[in-house]
Amino acid sequence: MSTQYKIIAAFLAIFIQGVFPASGVFAAESQVTESVPAVQSGNLPQPAAVPNKSANSSAAKPVFKAADYPSLLFTYWEHTAIQDARRSVGTNRAPTEAELTRDLKTMEEAKVKPPPEKRDIRLGGIVYHSSDDWTIWLNGERVTPKALPEEIIDLRVFNEYIEVKWFDEYTNQIFPIRLRAHQRFNIDTRIFLPG
Question: What is the CA radius of gyration of the chain?
């Protein structure tokens, strides 16, 4: 038996002896302690005193002090981290080297904030004939069903308004927006303005 298992067995024997009385369920504990070779007793904590059941029931119960029982395997913080990991929801996996390299490169390339005038989405006008025959002027550029800007993820054009899902590269977010003609949306303040 390895030394680590001997220490664990001795610790369990002392713990059981301190928690359960000898006449109780674990009366055979003496057999366990006899089979375990002697361990340095100076390193092990003393068992907590068990109150006598026949004594006054209002007697104070012994207080468990974590400092008196040092962990054999993990620190308190390591144990807490393990429990948190076991309770985590979802699938967790380690990132690959390619993902780490890509993320480091994007972090090194600090994104420069575009000027405020580039942070508006403006709808100049709508010419609507049918669901697949229309023209809109978005940010001063002509947009048709066959020529969509790269920032547009989804676009639905109606007679009096448009519904667009706009990808903002600076914040890496998608904004679902409904705009009418001669209306603009400011991405930073997230408000609609005329013009």
Answer: 35
